[in-house]
Amino acid sequence: MKLRLGLLWILIACICSGCSDEKVQQNDTSSSTCEVFAMDTYMTLTADGENVDKALNEAKARIEELDNILSTGNEESEIALLNKTGSGELSEDSFYLLEKSLEISDKTDGAFLPTIYPLMEAWGFPTKEFNVPEESTIESLLPLLDVGQVEIDSDKKSVSFKKAGMKLDFGGIAKGYTSDEIMKIFKENGIESGIVNLGGNVHTLGTKADGSLWKVGIQNPSGGEDYLGVLEIADKAVITSGGYERYFEEDGIIYHHIIDPDTGFPADNELQSVTIVSDNGLLADGLSTALFVMGLDKAIDFWRNNNTEFDVIMMTKDNVVYVSEGISDSFSTSYDMKLIER
Ligand code: AMP
Ligand code: MG
């Protein structure tokens, strides 16, 4: 109840103040910050520049627009309606996300599947009425994940599921796409310096206003106050997936929200968290989920085969941090660190 009231208060504060009332001082220049609660998470947008208030208001409106289209929990959303009917024409945004997520499924050999929703429902994540499904239930749902049964028409921007009961879920890429869209809005408004944090997923534009690099602390999956490490960057998305983000416990076992499409169970390997660093937020988000499913060795191979597109930081359950060569000089950690070479 307390939490609910807290959320409500933040919502009211945002609605009443718009995005641009709160000014924060940063070094010699002033930047503006806006807080939004959307996509089931707290978001903070900060930017610096002449048109900053307009940019932040446009960004907030865009976040709300995307949330209204993509939310599986909102019965009126485009995706919820599609999941009910099994076919329909899509908006530009949904169709783009569908095409991109099918590309990521293909690229990751099915570790990422936008058709994962029937399993999310079986485990109770959307309603928070958690439940460990019977093996037989999981077996019966696995065929619904087959992306080959999603038929799309690029001219009409329409989609049709070839098996009854198939459902989409863009929860694994929506925030990355949203941060790409915010960066676009910032740039259109002449902003050269900004940073957004969408529930732990960070995207930076340019450098800080004083020209120095952004310092992004990466959340420690084993809890506590300290970060897993700190990354110094400019113009990058830094997106993390981990079981610690959403989970429930039953009979002493923890079940989290990232499902291995091969088994229908929460991914269970040596990884605690995967952080992807890339110019492209959507790709970073899709890959953070996919590499978490793959496990350490496959994820390392995947990076070696695609290392021009992204870099990666992974923490194993025994608290060793693996960092790919492209960002190792920009990253510092107090944990044991192993370099992933090309
Ligand atoms: P992320 O925090 O980006 O890793 O996204 C996790 C969310 O992605 C979950 O809450 C589900 O909505 C969705 N999801 C879970 N497992 C998968 C999967 N194997 N492929 C694609 N999306 C998934
Ligand atoms: Mg993701």
Task: Detail the topology: elements first, then pairings.
Blueprint: H1 2-17, E1 23-26, E2 29-38, E3 41-48, H2 52-70, H3 78-85, E4 87-89, H4 92-107, H5 117-123, H6 135-141, E5 150-153, E6 158-161, H7 174-188, E7 193-198, E8 201-205, E9 214-218, E10 229-233, E11 237-242, E12 247-250, E13 253-256, E14 271-278, H8 281-294, H9 296-305, E15 311-316, E16 320-324, E17 331-332, E18 336-340
Parallel strand pairs: 16-18
Antiparallel strand pairs: 1-2, 2-3, 3-7, 4-6, 5-6, 7-8, 8-11, 9-10, 10-17, 11-14, 12-13, 14-15, 15-16
Helix pairs in contact: 2-7, 4-8, 7-8, 8-9
The structure holds adenosine monophosphate and magnesium ion.
Adenosine monophosphate binds next to helix 8.
Share of residues in helices: 25-40%
Structural class: alpha+beta
Portion in strands: 25-35%
Unreliable spans are 1-17, 21-28
Number of helices: 9
Write a concise synopsis of the structure shown:
This protein has nine helices and 18 strands. It has 342 residues and is an alpha+beta fold. The site of magnesium ion has 7 residues, from helix 8.
Structure description:
This protein has 342 residues and is α+β, with helices and mostly antiparallel strands. It has nine helices and 18 strands. The chain has helices at 2-17, 52-70, 78-85, 92-107, 117-123, 135-141, 174-188, 281-294, 296-305; strands at 23-26, 29-38, 41-48, 87-89, 150-153, 158-161, 193-198, 201-205, 214-218, 229-233, 237-242, 247-250, 253-256, 271-278, 311-316, 320-324, 331-332, 336-340. The strands form four sheets. A ten-stranded mixed β-sheet has the order 1-2-3-7-8-11-14-15-16-18. Strands 4-6-5 form a three-stranded antiparallel β-sheet. A three-stranded antiparallel β-sheet has the order 9-10-17, with no helix packed on it. Residues 1-17 and 21-28 have low confidence and may be disordered.
